[in-house]
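REVIEWER CHECKLIST
Item 1: Sequence provided? yes
Item 2: Single chain? yes
Item 3: Sequence as submitted:
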Amino acid sequence: MAKSKSTFVVGFLAYQIAVDVADKTSKKMEKKNVSLSKDGLKVGVKEVSAEQIGDSTQRYITNLHHTVTTVSNCK
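Item 4: Structure as written out by the authors:
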């Protein structure tokens, strides 16, 4: 009787660990816009507004201009 109880306890602990790992993994994946469903893996795409695109483009052009200006002034 003691052997079946210990087997049950070990099995239950393994189940609890598996459920805990699955929950933590699911939460981490949701933070990165990834979800696993019966249909397969789905990856979400972050929404980027037109203003954010314009800001990053302007920042890139400004940095490029400053770099070119600095290099041409060094000559």
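Item 5: Key structural point noted by reviewer: The beta strands are 34-37, 40-43.
Item 6: Recommendation: ____
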